[in-house]
Structures are given as C-alpha cells and as structure tokens.
Design brief:
single chain; alpha/beta; Aldehyde Dehydrogenase, Chain A, domain 1; Aldehyde Dehydrogenase, Chain A, domain 2; 2 domains; seven-stranded mixed sheet; six-stranded mixed sheet; 43% helix; 17% strand; globular; binds nicotinamide-adenine-dinucleotide; oxidoreductase; Ald_DH_C; Ald_DH/histidinol_DH; Succinate-semialdehyde dehydrogenase (NADP(+))
C-alpha cells in the first residue's frame, strides 16, 4: 500500500460514497484474490480509495449473473425498458455535479469538460427514446413470391455484451455505449479503466435508482490483459473503445470466437485551413479542437494544414491564443480553469517524449513544450510546433496530448493528400468561408467523421448519425439506428402460405426452368420481389 497522503476531495464525494461504489465491483467472489488498485486524485497524486480487482473467475461469475437477469429484461416490453431510461435521463442531469466531481478526480480534466462529458449520455438516451421503437420494430418484407410468401425482419438482443472503456471520457463512453445495448434487451459487463471507474459505478447506481434490474449490469475491474480474454470468451458481443493496438487484440479474439465487435480506436486527426477563413470565428474553435480536454479526445486535431497565403497570420494568432490558454490552466473543481491536467504522470511523460524527440530532430517549438509541475504532477502546456517531419513520432503517431503541429500547403489537392497521409481515419476538419468548396474537398478526405467549420463537436454531438473510424481507426459505428442494431441479431422469419416453391417432381425440369424464367421476368417488370 502507498505512503502517499489522503486526498482532500470535493464535499459531495464522501468516504462512504467511495466505499459504496467500490463495493459494486464484481470481485473477490471466485478465484485467487487480487491486490486492490490504489486510486489517486490526478491533480495531487493523493490516495482516494482502493478499487477491488476482478479475477478471471469473477468475470465468469459476472457474466452468469448478467445472463440470469437478461432473460427477464429482454422479455419486458420495449416501452418498459425505455421508461427506465426516461427516469435515468433526469437522474443523470440532477446528479451532474457529483458525476463531474468523480470524473475530475479520476482523470483531472477541467470542470467544464467534465460537465460536457456527463451531458453525452442524456443526449444518447434522448435519441433512443425517440427512435428505438421504430428501429427495433419487426419489419414485414415481401417474400420471394408476392402474397403467397412473406418474410419478417426481427431484431433480438444478442445476450450479454462487454463494454470496454478507456480513461479519457470514462463516463460518457461506458454509459453511452451501454445505453443502446440495454435498450435492445441485453445484459452488460462493463470494464472501465481502473483510474476512472468511480464515475461509471455512480452512473450504474443511478440506473438502478431509475429501475434497472440489479444484476443486469456488472462491473469488472482489472488490468486489461488479465480480465479481457476471459470476458471476450464469455460474451456475445464486444464494444471496445481504446487504442488501435488493443483494438487489434480484441478484434483478433472476437474473430476467433466468431462474435461481433465494434472497435472505436485512435486517430491522428488533420484540419485544413483554407485561405478564405474568418480568423475571428475560426481561432477559438480551432483552439478547442486542438487543446480541448488537454488534447485527450480521440477526435481532437493534432495536425493543422494552413494555406501559405494566410500561414504567417494564422500561426501568429493561433500561438497567441494558445499562450492565453496556458494562463488559464489549473487544478480545481470549479469552472475557473479552461484546461486541466493530463490523466497521469506516465501519460504526460509519453506526450513530453514526442515533443522532445521532435525538438531534437529539428522541429521548432513555437510555444509550450514543457510540463507544469507547479500546477500538478501531470500538467503539460498547450504546445505548438512547426517544422515537424515524417521521421518524428509526433508526425505520424497519436500523441493524445495538448500538442499540435502546423504545416504550410499551396493547393487544395496537396492539402488533402497531406491530410490523408496517415494509417488512421477517425476525424478530419476543414475551415473555410465557402461551404461548396469545403463540401467538394470533404468528398476526397478519408475519415469516418468530417467537420466543416468545426473541429469535432458538430459530428460528435449528432447522435442520430452513426459514426466511427475508417482505416486503422475502427470497425463499426456508434449512434443512430446502426448503433442500436449492432447489439441485436437479425432474424429472418419466412412464411410460405401455399406449397408452390418445392420441386415439382411431376414436371420435367426443362419445363420448370421455362416457367421460372417467365416468372422472374414478370416480377422484374412489375417491380415485385
Ligand atoms: P487502451 O487501449 O490502453 O485501453 C482501453 C481499455 O481497454 C482500458 O479499459 C484497458 O484496461 C482495456 N484493455 C487493455 N488491454 C485489454 C485487453 N487485452 N483485453 C481487454 N481490455 C483491455 O486505451 P487508453 O489508453 O485507455 O485510451 C486512449 C486511446 O483510446 C486513444 O488511442 C484514443 O484515441 C482512444 N479513444 C478512441 C475513441 C473513439 O471513439 N474512437 C474514444 C476515446 C478514446
């Protein structure tokens, strides 16, 4: 156990709340007991509490408990399941301050980001309250022979789904990805990151208050490679959000088990700034696109390509804005700081290593480039670089911190080629005064999300539209009808009211062929089938 001091937490987060939440983890029920994980407050490194760790046997037990509760849940009418989420929507908004406290404790983000993070789940709930009945309703399709045959498309829950979440949006990702899985009638096993499990556990407590049956959602905690393989061996679907490297492992195991998976992975997201841009509108938005959540947003911008005619002015104004932001960093549970900490000292060191290597290989650090130990152990300044070349990790690998490289380009075609020159394809952005020009450029950009005159918020908050990564940034999508249907098996129920399709043994096959061809041509002409 650690010798670090005990954290002074915001008053809403009491010791008894932390004990109640950690007791919800499915751990210590079976198998060899694990050492609990020491949770710390990111701002100080002080101890917050101890999180039980699940053994592989605990994971099996968790799936069994969720499976037992799932049968009854799936049998409930959809409107009853939706009523639970109607109540949960209100409870999440009522408890937004405590949820924000717990998010901040675990990952050190600025309060305004924590509040925005909580809002994600009510947005997703509202979307599915509006659309789930239509999406999940059985759909009558025509059969191969009109009138005499019919086919019905049904959507049944898969059973028990694993939702594996990272630390950067720990509440939004675990809760918003579980919401459609539960609405579709599944049980869920959540696997949050150890550092940020408290906010997820409180979210589940609120779902229970809203009427979700106990047992249906289980939380297993542990180191990924310890609990992950057993989890994937025991569920029917995996919803994973995290790095591309881990996503590949999850995808391989899911493939071997012949179960579906949805993978939301990393990015190296580009932005193109055209020469007709309005700086006054663009700069504050681009600042947030690069440095929001201290650059720990999967969709945030790490590469900015600026047309050469406006490059100097852009660099001057953007750098000035980044320096102003550096003065508004801080560790606080109120709304004063605009930018918070990185999640951990280890992560801060990884970010700093990218910057240091670029500096050593000849890049220019226009502003920032240093940790801020005066604010907390894992703070890092908003950093702007130029002269970054492809032999530097910063140019091609996801940095996932408050670090952005600015490049100059001449033609639109060159800008698109540079933006696409990456194995990733999560998010891309274009800033312009001419929407037609931007829409045309967008057609050639290889990315799952493309934002015009915004960094990422517009597509991110459009919960009715499925979104995900292309190339190495993911497989599958979340949100919209697709984000609900992926948690279901599609069943095709065919009915033949009169036996006309069985082989007619009395008729020679040549004759059958003729009648088949006549029928197919007639059906095409009449637009049947
Ligand atoms: P990570 O891949 O290290 O971990 C993500 C989660 O997977 C954690 O809960 C971890 O414990 C678990 N895990 C690790 N190995 C596992 C295994 N073998 N089996 C099962 N689970 C395992 O990612 P991270 O560092 O926590 O998160 C940052 C990454 O997530 C960045 O690359 C970021 O771009 C990405 N991300 C993507 C999206 C998106 O929607 N595309 C959203 C947020 C974050």
């Amino acid at each position: 156990m650690s010798t670090t001091s005990k954290a002074k937490l915001p008053p809403r987060v009491t010791e008894s709340l932390i004990n109640r939440l950690t007791a919800m983890v499915t751990a210590g029920k079976a198998g060899e007991a694990r050492e609990p994980f020491e949770m710390t407050e990111t701002y100080t490194g002080d101890v917050v509490g101890y999180l039980p760790q699940s053994s592989p046997e605990d994971v099996v037990a968790a799936v069994e408990m969720a499976r037992a509760a799932q049968k009854e849940w799936a049998a409930r009418p959809l409107k009853d399941r939706l009523a639970v989420f109607e109540r949960a929507h209100e409870l999440l908004l009522t408890e937004i301050e405590t949820l924000a406290d717990l998010i901040q404790i675990g990952c050190g983000k600025a309060r305004r980001m924590a509040i925005e993070e909580v809002c994600d789940t009510p947005l997703v709930i509202a979307q599915y309250l509006k659309t789930a009945a239509k999406t999940l309703k059985p759909k009558k399709r025509s059969g191969p022979m009109p009138v005499i045959t019919s086919s019905t498309e049904e959507h049944r829950p898969k059973g028990v789904v694993a939702v594996i979440a990272p630390w950067n949006f720990p509440f939004a990702i675990s809760m918003s990805d579980s919401t459609p899985a539960l609405i579709a009638g599944n049980g869920v096993i959540m696997k949050p990151d150890n550092k940020t499990a408290l906010c997820t556990l409180y979210g589940i407590e609120l779902l229970h208050k809203a009427g979700l049956p106990r047992g249906l959602v289980q939380v297993v905690c542990g180191v990924g490679p310890d609990v992950g393989p057993t989890l994937i061996d025991n569920v029917e679907f995996v919803m994973f959000t995290g790095s591309t490297a881990t996503g590949r492992t999850i995808g391989e195991q899911s493939g071997r088990n012949l179960i579906g998976c949805s993978l939301e992975l990393g990015g190296k997201n580009p932005m193109i700034v055209l020469d007709d841009v309005n700086f006054d509108e663009a700069i504050p938005s681009i600042l947030f696109a690069a440095f929001g959540n201290a650059g720990q947003i999967c969709m945030h911008i790490e590469r900015i390509y600026v047309q050469e005619r406006i490059y100097d002015e852009f660099l001057r104004r953007f750098t000035a804005a980044a320096e102003e932001l550096a003065g508004k960093m801080g560790a606080s549970y109120d709304f004063a700081p605009e930018m918070g900490s990185l999640v951990s000292v280890d992560h801060m060191k990884r970010v700093a290593a990218h910057v240091d290597e670029a500096r050593e290989k000849g890049a220019t650090i226009v502003t920032g480039g240093n940790p801020r130990p005066d604010l907390g152990p894992a703070f890092f300044e908003p950093t702007v670089l130029t002269g970054v070349t492809n032999d530097m990790a910063l140019a091609t690998m996801e940095t996932f911190g408050p670090v952005v490289s600015i490049y100059k380009y001449k033609t639109d075609a060159e800008a698109v080629a540079l933006a696409n020159d990456t194995p990733y394809g999560l998010n891309a952005a274009i800033w312009t005064g001419n929407f037609d020009r931007a829409t045309k450029l967008a057609e050639t950009i290889e990315s799952g999300s493309i934002n015009i005159n915004d960094g990422f918020i517009t597509s991110y908050a459009a919960k009715g539209t499925p979104s995900g990564g292309v190339k190495q940034s993911g497989v599958g999508t979340r949100h919209g009808a697709a984000g609900l249907l992926k948690y279901t098996d599609t069943i095709n129920v065919g009915v033949q009211k009169k036996q006309i399709m069985a082989s007619r043994s009395s008729m020679p096959y040549e004759k059958q062929l003729k009648s088949t061809l006549v029928t197919l041509r007639l059906m095409r002409r009449l637009h049947l089938g």
